[in-house]
Amino acid sequence: MQLSAKSRVRAEHRAEVIKALAHPSRLLIAERLEQGEQCVSDLTNFVGADTSTVSKHLALMKAVGLVTVEKRGLQQFYSLACPCLGSFFDCVDELTRNRLKRLRR
Questions:
Q1: Are 26 and 57 in contact (CB under 8 A)?
Q2: What are φ and ψ of residue 76, in 5° steps?
Q3: Which residues lie across from 75 on neighbouring strands?
Q4: pLDDT tens digits for 24-36?
């Protein structure tokens, strides 16, 4: 059975989203956004990086559709575009726990 063009495009889009999460700071940002919208300065303090670095991470996450942004006055507030991301993180945590169990044996 040959892979359809639609399946290939879907796989490429999934890879883009996963690549956008594949950095510890971006994972921390996503984790924080699970609690609700945050401004850049709050995320900067949480991640412990400078504002320009956090802004670049957010721009990448926005480009693949992980976050949305709303400008209010001089501040920009970011939110997760998909609240189901927490379920994905739970799944990853379970995989990690299982891996650690196997390594301890």
A1: yes
A2: -115, 130
A3: 72
A4: 999 999 999 999 9
CA-based Rg of the chain, rounded to a whole angstrom?
16
User: What percent of the chain has pLDDT above 90?
Assistant: 77
Q: How far apart are CA 83 and CA 30, in angstroms?
A: 10
Tokens (6 digits) for 100: 């650690």
Q: Which of 44, 39, 30 is nearest to 72 (CA)?
A: 39
- Give the β-pairing of 75-80 and 67-72: antiparallel
For residues 15 and 70, give the distance between their C-alpha atoms in angstroms, rounded to a whole number.
Answer: 26
For the entire predicted model, the pTM comes to 0.86
Domain ranges of the chain: 5-104
CATH, domain range 5-104: 1.10.10.10
